[in-house]
Each structure stands twice: as C-alpha cells, then as structure tokens.
UniProtKB/TrEMBL annotation:
SUPFAM superfamilies: FAD/NAD(P)-binding domain. This is Adenylate cyclase. InterPro entries: FAD/NAD-bd_sf, HpyO/CreE_NAD-binding, L-asp_N-monooxygenase_NS-form. Pfam families: NAD_binding_9. Residues 520-531 have a biased composition (Basic and acidic residues). PANTHER family: BLR0577 PROTEIN.
Length: 586
C-alpha cells in the first residue's frame, strides 16, 4: 500500500511545503511510492488570497525583487538549498516594481508546477478542489480527511494543515453592530479579505465609516475609486462620480508606514546581536509563562536600536558624536532603558536620527486639533513626511531597522505564544503599502473623497446611524449609514468559520490564550492540552502560534517560513520513509 500524505491548503504555504518535500526527498525518502493529496477549492499555487481571478488594480505591497519562494544560503535549515528566481527575475520586471496580484498568482502557479516536476517519479500529486471538513482517526493510526461533497474520506498516514487567512465568526461587538444594521437598514461589512467583499451597497457620494488603516484599507480605497472609474493624473485625482466618501480612523489614526523606496548598500548590521538563538532558548526554558512586554520587548527594542545605530555610525558617521566602537561597547553594557537613552542623547545630536519606538507606535498621542480641517492638513503633512523619509537614502538607518525587524520575527516564531501586539507592530513598520498608494491617499484627501477621523477611533450605533469619533479632534463626530471594518478576521480557533479548525478545536487541540493553534516549534506538529505533539498531524500558517511575518520571504534574510517548511517536510519524509515502511511491512 502506497503511503498517503494530505496537505490541506494549496496556496503559498502548501506550495512551499511541496518544494521542500521535493528538495529533501532524495536524501530522506526511499519508499516504493507516495501519493500527495492537495486539498483546496482554489487552484494550487496562489490559493484563495493570491488567485489569478481578482482585480488587476490590486497590487502586492512588496517590490518584485523582494518576493521569492526559494531558499538560499542564509536560511538555517537541515535540507538542501534549491535556489530559484525572484518574482522580478521570473517575470522580467524592474526590480522596484510593485506587481499586481494576478501576476503573483501566475508566479506561484509556476513555482507549484516546478516543485511538482522536481518530485521523484514515484511520487504523485493529486489536487482535490474541495474544502476539508474534518480530520479524524487515532493518534497512532491512519487519519481520515473528510471533504465536502465526498461520501468517503481520504485516508492519510500524515496530514499537514497549511491553511492561510480564514473567515471567522463575528465577535460580540461585531454581532451587535451587524444586528443594529439589520434593524435599521444600514450597511455593515465585517472584517474580511477585501477582494471578496461585496462593496456594491456603498453608494456614490455617501459617507462610509472605515475602521482600519492598514493594507485592507488600501485595497478598499483602490476598489472604490479606480475600481469605479476614477483616474489619477500625477498628484490629482479625477473622480468618476461613483465614489463614496471614506472617513477612516484606527487605533493609531495613521496609515501603515510606506515601503522603503531605495536599496541596501554597504555593510549590513551583524544580526542577531541581542535577540538570537541563545536568548530564545533561555526564554523557552523559563518555568513561568513568558510575558512579552516584561521579558521579550526589552530584548527586541535593544536589537532594533542596535540595527539602527550600527547603520547610522557606519553609513552616516558625520551625524554622530562618538567613536563607533566606544558607542557599541557602551550600548551592549547598558542595563536599562534610561541608561540607553542617556547614551543615545550623548552620541546622536539630531533627534531625527534617534530611534524612538514608542513614538513610532503612538504617533498621535497627545495630539489635539480644534477642527477636522486642521487635522486633515496635519495628517497630509505626516504622510508627506513619511514618504519623503522612506525614500531618502540618507535615512538608511530606517532600512536597517527593517532588517532588524525581520531578524527579530525570525527568532520570535521559535517562542510560540507571544500575543497579537507584536504582529501588528511589525506590519505597521515593515509591511506597509507601496509609496504610490500613499500618494494616492493624499490625492483622494485633497479631492474630498478621503477624510481622516483620528486615533483611538470609536464607533457607536445610535439614532439609526453609525457614529465615529476620536479624541484627536475633541467634540467632533461623523455619522454614516455604512460601516466597513477594514481588516482581516482574527485567526482564532474559537471563532474560526472553517469547520475543520472548529472540529480540531473540539477534539482537544491546544490553543494559546489568544486563540491560536499551539504547535511544536521543532517541526509544526499540533499539540494537545497536555503539550503532547500529535504524531500524524502538523500545522503551519497564520492561525498557529508559529505565524511568520508574511506569505513570502525577502531574499537572503534567513526566511523563517523556509526554515519551518523544511523542518516539517523533513519530519514528514522521515516518518513516511522509515517508521511507516516498517509499519506497513509488519
């Protein structure tokens, strides 16, 4: 009987796993054959999020040169490196292009086809365009994977859940808002993947409240403006007349920072320096629960500061007032934040050259305006300043912090449960929109089609409408008959609309306090409530406690997702190629 492997999810994660299985099979798999079943209602390669059947107006938020599905020598893994083209090399694009998602879908399909072709001849891939509903079976025996519309299950010796972003049930606040909308004939669009949202109820000229100022908002903005026939000429937007008026706010009240618009030159910061494998091992060995703010954040902040100042001293020494070696020795020895602040004040004269993570995270703290118009002008200035800085190579310490963020994320995924704040902070600083999208925001603001509400935006439902307010403009509020929650659903087990995850949760899979699926950091096996890894079930992706910074990896940055994929692929092949062969032979 041929061994059977089921991978649920055929998007970038499932495709990456297939690539690692192909790379490691010559070393680890000597079986007489293997069937790999990919279960996904969407085409393999792109999956749901990166499917080719979506608007060509929607872009990636990374330069084409920064998108790869292939490993390189910087990835710390046991398997072999199999290099391949980045998106810009494969598509013959300019390196700095922000490709549309349709093109990325074609790239992912090509990667999938290449990985499938690289498998040994005796390995066969089967795609099942259905949804997986449940995985059942004994811990020590074959699993049954039940598919929608199929009376009998797929039998699997091992199962890997490689699910991406999923729909979820509404939380109590969202349920109340949805009920109010139904009662008063309003429009309420809950958290969702924007490309899948029905935006037709948002009428021309009507005010729309939008809560969320990240990448989901950018997609919403594009689909409701250019997607409705508007066009840009330079810095001017020409409306079609079909656009609504968007009133947007969030916790921070500002958009995510622009993608950096220049490349790296010169010496890279030697990372990790203050948060590396030794520190992670020490934190993991603690008998008490690790508190992110108390135990981890000081190390993160010191690591990011090191990346920032290393670049400042090496690339822009004329803006420093201390010998670099002396500074770095004192920086390493500094034992508390006050000591570090005093050192930086002495060594870096210009406040614009200092890294203030708290100020970055709370840009509008204490900011108050007497009128909405004054705030519109203020925030346009903020966005223009951000664009200028993020495209100025003389501010290249910002790019070094970006590299520090990638290094930190690669270490933190080994810790597992660190809470949701870090992921949001990382995305805000490192995974923001392309610069042209922020310029479009400015054009829409000047055209009166985009209005900024402010920080700590609140939404209430009263007097038959939705009402938004912010302490940034005290006493001001805006009312509308439509509310859009511009963000992806939270990836939690308890509210997952995906039946497979709900069943897994009901069957005893462990979750973190934040509702993420607990997995073994060594190879991705799913843990139960007693901390035991399931011998035949694995999981990777954003709903696990080993979530990585994004779907794709920037070349030569270590690639935490590559490391995870490789570890899981090797564990799977070792099991199928040794213990399972012996089991079947008995």
């Amino acid at each position: 009987m041929r061994p059977q492997l089921v991978i649920v999810g055929a998007g970038p994660r499932g495709t990456g796993l297939l690539e690692r299985i192909a790379a490691n099979a010559p070393e680890l798999y000597a079986g007489s054959g293997l069937d790999i079943h990919l279960v996904d209602p969407y085409p393999p390669g792109g999956g749901r999020i990166w499917r080719q059947a979506q608007s060509p107006l929607l872009w990636m938020n990374s330069h084409a040169e920064d998108v790869t599905m292939f490993t390189d020598e910087t990835v710390t893994m046991a398997g072999p490196v199999r290099e391949g083209p980045t998106l810009h090399e494969w598509a013959a694009l300019d390196a700095g292009t922000f490709a549309d998602r349709q093109l990325q879908g074609r790239y992912l399909r090509w990667v999938y086809e290449r990985a499938r072709a690289d498998l040994p001849p005796e390995v066969t891939v089967h795609h099942h365009p259905q949804r997986a509903l449940r995985v059942s079976g004994p811990r020590e025996g074959r699993q049954q994977v039940w598919l929608e519309g199929r009376p009998r299950p797929l039998l699997a010796d091992l199962v890997i859940l490689a699910l991406g972003h999923l729909d979820s049930e509404l939380d109590p606040e969202q349920r109340a808002l949805a009920a109010y909308a139904r009662e008063h004939d309003l429009v309420h669009l809950p958290p969702d993947f924007t490309a899948d949202s029905d935006l037709s109820p948002l009428g021309p000229g009507e005010p729309v409240l939008v809560r969320g100022f990240g990448l989901a908002f950018v997609d919403l903005m594009v689909l409701l403006t250019e997607g409705r026939g508007g066009r840009y000429e330079g810095d001017t937007y020409h409306p079609s007349g079909r656009e609504p008026v968007l009133h947007v706010g969030s916790r921070r009240g500002v958009p995510y920072h622009s993608k950096i618009g220049y490349g790296w030159t010169g010496e890279r910061p030697p990372l990790p320096r203050f948060l590396g494998p030794a520190e992670i091992e020490r934190l993991s060995a603690r008998p008490d629960r690790v508190d992110f703010r108390r135990d981890v954040w000081p190390l993160v902040a010191k690591e990011l500061g090191f990346a920032h100042y290393h670049r400042l001293f090496t690339a822009h020494p004329e803006r420093t007032a201390m010998d670099r070696a002396d500074f770095e020795a004192k920086y390493a020895a500094a034992g508390d934040p006050a000591e570090l602040r005093a050192l930086v004040l002495a060594a870096v004269p210009d406040p614009a050259d200092r890294l203030d993570l708290d100020a970055l995270d709370h840009p509008l703290d204490g900011v108050r305006h007497t009128s909405p118009e004054a705030f519109q002008e203020e925030l346009r200035g903020y966005i223009e300043a951000d664009l200028s800085r993020r495209h100025d190579p003389s501010r290249s310490a910002d790019l070094s912090v970006f590299l520090g963020l990638l290094s930190v994320y690669g270490q933190l995924v080994r810790l597992g449960n660190i809470g949701p704040w870090w992921h949001g902070f990382f995305s805000y600083l490192a995974s923001g929109p392309p610069g042209p999208r922020l310029r479009q925001m400015l054009a829409l603001s000047r055209a009166g089609l985009l209005r900024f509400v402010g920080a700590d935006m609140t939404v209430s439902a009263e007097n038959g409408v939705f009402r938004a307010a912010s302490p940034t403009v005290p006493g001001f509020f805006v009312e509308a008959r439509a509310l859009v929650e511009a963000r992806l659903p939270e990836p939690t087990l308890g509210r997952a609309r995906d039946r497979l995850l709900r069943e897994l949760h009901a069957d005893g899979a462990a979750e973190t306090p934040d509702g993420l699926l607990r997995t073994d950091p060594a190879d991705g096996r799913i843990l139960d409530g007693r901390g035991r890894p399931h011998p035949r079930l694995f999981a990777l992706g954003p709903y696990t406690d080993a979530r990585t910074p994004g779907a794709f990896t920037r070349p030569r940055t270590g690639g935490a997702a590559f490391r995870q994929n490789d570890a899981t692929a090797r564990a799977v092949l070792a099991f199928l190629g040794t213990s399972l062969v012996k089991e079947l032979a008995r």
